[in-house]
Design goal:
The chain is of the alpha+beta class and 591 residues long. Among the domains are: 3-66, no CATH class; 88-136 and 403-436, no CATH class; 139-214 and 254-291, no CATH class; 301-400, no CATH class. Helices cover 21% and strands 31% of the residues. It has helices at residues 3-24, 46-66, 71-81, 184-194, 233-243, 444-452, 464-474, 482-493, 542-559, and strands at residues 92-99, 108-110, 116-120, 126-131, 135-137, 140-149, 155-163, 175-179, 195-202, 208-210, 215-216, 250-253, 267-274, 289-291, 293-297, 300-303, 307-309, 316-318, 326-337, 344-348, 360-367, 374-381, 393-402, 426-430, 495-507, 510-511, 517-519, 523-534, 565-572, 578-580, 584-585. The strands form seven sheets. Strands 16, 17, 18, 19, 20, 21, 22 and 23 form an eight-stranded mixed beta sheet that branches. Helix 4 (184-194) packs across helix 9 (542-559) and helix 5 packs antiparallel against helix 9 (542-559).
C-alpha cells in the first residue's frame, strides 16, 4: 500500500476518533479536541493541524514498516541467488546499422555491450543505448524480395542480395535477419514451422546449394538484453517477452560459406519454400527483412555522487552524479580516507570474498515515501557484519545507470547520435519503438513469490491457475505501458486448459544454440509432455500466439532437470490449429 494511504488513515483516525476518545475519557485527554464548533475544546488552530499531520506522517511510516514483511531478509536471499530480480528493467529497442559504402570492405564486427549510441531527450539531455549482441556488418544489401504463391498452398520467397563494394566479395558464413513491420510474428511462424526448403543460388549460376534451417535467436543466456546470473533463465525470458517481444523476432542463416562453390557471385539469393501458408493481409518487401540489426538497452556506466562516510549513520543514499539518471546496479566502489591518496576497494557484502581488512557495502532499493520512485541506499559493514566505525572517508561508486522512464520519450529513428564508442563506418537508427522502463519490484510479497520460482518444475506448474499466476508476476506494471500490459494480460488469460503427463522422447546427441537436440544418434529420454489450449482470439495473429508458445516452450525447458526433457504442444481453440515444438533438454540440477 502506498504511503499516502497510511498517512490518510492516521490523519482521519486522529481527527475523527480523537474527539470521541476525549469525550469518553476526559480525564485522560481533555485537550484532544472536539468536532463540535460550540464546544470550548473545538479548535481550528493551524498549529494543532500541523501537529496532527506530523503525528500522522510518523505513525504512518511506522505502520508501513510493520507491514513490509521483512524485505531485508528476502533482499539478502535474492541478492545471492538472483540479484537481477532486484534491479530495474531498462528500456530497449532494435538498432539497424547501415554500412557506409567505401568504408566497409569486409566483415567488420560491432562488439556487444561495448558500443553506445546516442539520442537527445526533450530537455536536451543525452540518452544512451548499449548494443546487446555483436553485429557483423558487410558491404551487402537486400535489393528486393520476390514472392510466388504455389498451387498447393505453399509460398516461394526469393531474397535477392547484392555486394555493393567493387572489391572481391568477402567470406560469408552467417547472415542474420530481423523480421520487422506488419506481420513480423507471422513471418516468424513461417520460418519456424512452415519452411521446407532453404537454398543458396547465384544470380548467373544455374545451381543451388541447400542450407540448414535458420536458427531463431534471443533465447540463450548470452543473448539476454542484460547479462544476468539468475539460476532460472525462464524468468529472464518472460521479463523480456512481456516488455519487448521484438527482441525474439530474429532468425540467422548459417552455411553461407557455400558461396565459394558458386564462385563468389556479386549477386546471390536465398531461396525459401514454405508449405501450407495461410492467407495473409500484408505485402512482403525488404523492410520486412532487416540486415545488421541487434537489440540495444538504455544502460551505460556513470559515477555516483561522493558519499561522506562518517560512521554516524547506518546507511547512506546513493545518487548518480547526474541526478536525472536512475541507478540500475553498482559495479564497484572505492574509498579515500582523510589524509591519504591511495583508494581502497569496497566489495559487495554478498560476495564470496572474506578478507579481514576489507570493508563491504550492502545495497538496498526502497520506494521513496513521497515520489514512489525506487531509491538506492548503501550501508558499510566489516567482515563480521559490524557497522563501520567512525572514520572520515569519501566513497564513490561506479554505477550502471539508465534514463528511467524518460527513455520512452525517444521516438522511432531518433537514436542516431555518435558517441565516443559508436562505429564511424556505419550509420545507425532505431527501427522500433522504445520498450517501457520497469522499476525495481519493492513489494516484499512479490519478492518472496519471485524467489519461489527458482525451484520450479514442469510438474509444479500443472494447472492453468498456477501457470497464469506465475506469468502475471513477470508482466510489466499497468502504469508502465497500459496497452502492452493489457495485451499481455489477454495472452495470459487465453490459456483455458493445461495437461501435464510423463512421456518418453527419442532425443539426438547434438545441441543447437537454443538447447535443442538436432542431430546425432537417438536415445530415449524420460520427460514431461505439456499441452496447452489457448484462445487465438486474444492474440493479434497466429504468429503472435506461436511466439508466445515459443517463449513458454523454453520456460518449461529451463524448468526441467538434467537428463530429462519437456515438449510443449499448443492448440488454438479458435481455429483448431496445433503447434508442437521439439523436445527441450533440461538443465536444472536435480537437487
Amino acid at each position: 500500500m502506498n504511503f499516502n494511504r497510511y498517512f490518510e488513515e492516521e490523519l482521519t483516525f486522529l481527527k475523527n476518533l480523537g474527539p470521541e476518545f476525549g469525550r469518553r475519557w476526559p480525564e485522560l485527554a481533555p485537550f484532544l479536541g472536539s468536532d463540535d464548533p460550540n464546544d470550548p475544546a473545538f479548535s481550528r488552530d493551524p498549529d494543532v493541524d500541523r501537529l496532527f499531520e506530523g503525528f500522522a506522517f510518523l505513525t504512518g511510516r511506522i505502520r508501513q514498516k510493520l507491514d513490509d514483511e521483512f524485505p531485508e531478509l528476502i533482499d539478502t536471499l535474492l541478492s545471492v541467488l538472483a540479484p537481477d530480480l532486484l534491479r530495474p528493467q531498462p528500456s530497449a529497442t532494435i538498432i539497424e546499422f547501415e554500412p557506409m559504402q567505401g568504408r566497409v570492405r569486409g566483415a567488420t564486427e560491432i562488439p556487444a555491450r561495448e558500443v553506445e549510441l546516442g539520442a537527445k531527450l526533450g530537455n536536451g539531455a543525452e540518452c544512451r543505448f548499449q548494443t546487446c549482441w555483436p553485429v557483423e556488418v558487410l558491404p551487402l544489401s537486400l535489393q528486393d524480395v520476390a514472392s510466388k504463391v504455389l498451387t498447393d498452398g505453399g509460398l516461394e520467397l526469393r531474397l535477392n542480395l547484392v555486394w555493393y563494394d567493387k572489391a572481391s566479395p568477402p567470406d560469408l558464413d552467417r547472415l542474420r535477419f530481423h523480421l520487422s513491420g506488419k506481420g513480423a510474428a507471422d513471418l516468424y511462424l513461417w520460418f519456424c514451422e512452415h519452411l521446407v526448403r532453404c537454398a543458396l543460388t547465384g544470380a548467373e549460376v544455374d545451381r543451388s546449394i541447400r542450407l540448414p534451417k535458420p536458427t531463431p535467436l534471443g533465447f540463450v543466456p548470452g543473448e539476454a538484453l542484460v547479462l544476468q546470473t539468475a539460476p532460472f533463465d525462464g524468468a529472464r525470458l518472460l521479463q523480456e517477452y512481456f516488455a519487448f517481444k521484438a527482441k525474439f523476432l530474429f532468425v540467422e542463416f548459417s552455411g553461407l560459406k557455400a558461396l565459394q562453390k558458386l564462385g563468389r557471385p556479386k549477386e546471390f539469393a536465398l531461396y525459401l519454400r514454405f508449405r501450407d501458408i495461410p492467407a495473409h493481409q500484408f505485402d512482403l518487401s525488404p523492410a520486412n527483412f532487416r540486415l545488421f540489426c541487434c537489440p540495444a538497452v538504455n544502460m551505460f556506466p556513470a559515477d555516483s555522487d561522493p558519499i561522506a562516510v562518517t560512521g554516524e549513520r547506518y546507511e547512506y543514499p546513493v545518487q548518480a552524479a547526474d541526478s536525472d539518471l536512475s541507478i540500475h546496479s553498482i559495479q564497484s566502489g572505492q574509498g579515500w580516507l582523510a589524509g591519504t591518496r591511495e583508494p581502497r576497494d569496497y566489495e559487495p557484502f554478498v560476495s564470496l570474498s572474506r578478507k579481514p581488512d576489507t570493508t563491504y557495502y550492502d545495497i538496498k532499493f526502497r520506494r521513496h515515501i513521497v515520489t514512489e520512485e525506487p531509491q538506492a541506499f548503501v550501508s558499510f559493514v566489516t567482515p563480521r557484519q559490524k557497522e563501520l566505525v567512525a572514520s572520515r572517508e569519501t566513497v564513490v561508486f561506479s554505477l550502471l545507470c539508465t534514463n528511467g522512464s524518460a527513455a520512452q520519450t525517444v521516438k522511432e529513428g531518433q537514436i542516431h547520435d555518435q558517441t565516443s564508442t559508436s562505429p564511424e563506418y556505419a550509420r545507425f537508427r532505431n527501427i522500433s519503438p522504445i520498450s517501457p522502463y520497469v522499476p525495481v519490484p519493492t513489494s516484499a510479497e512479490r519478492r518472496w513469490q519471485l524467489l519461489s520460482h527458482m525451484v520450479l518444475s514442469p510438474t509444479a506448474l500443472n494447472d492453468v491457475d498456477r501457470l497464469a499466476s506465475m506469468l502475471r508476476m513477470y508482466n510489466i506494471p499497468i502504469t508502465a505501458d497500459p496497452p502492452v500490459a493489457r495485451a499481455n494480460i489477454r495472452r495470459i488469460e487465453s490459456i483455458s486448459a493445461m495437461r501435464v503427463a510423463p512421456a518418453d522422447f527419442m532425443m539426438t546427441s547434438e545441441l543447437d544454440p537454443g538447447g535443442f537436440r538436432v542431430g546425432g544418434y537417438g536415445v530415449s529420454v524420460r520427460g514431461t509432455s505439456v499441452e496447452l489450449d489457448m484462445d487465438g482470439e486474444q492474440f493479434a495473429s497466429e504468429g503472435d500466439l506461436f511466439l508466445f508458445g515459443s517463449v513458454l516452450n523454453h520456460v518449461f525447458g529451463y524448468c526441467a532437470t538434467l537428463n530429462s526433457a519437456t515438449r510443449l504442444t499448443v492448440k488454438n481453440t479458435a481455429t483448431g490449429t496445433v503447434h508442437r515444438w521439439t523436445p527441450h533438454v533440461g538443465s536444472q540440477p536435480a537437487l
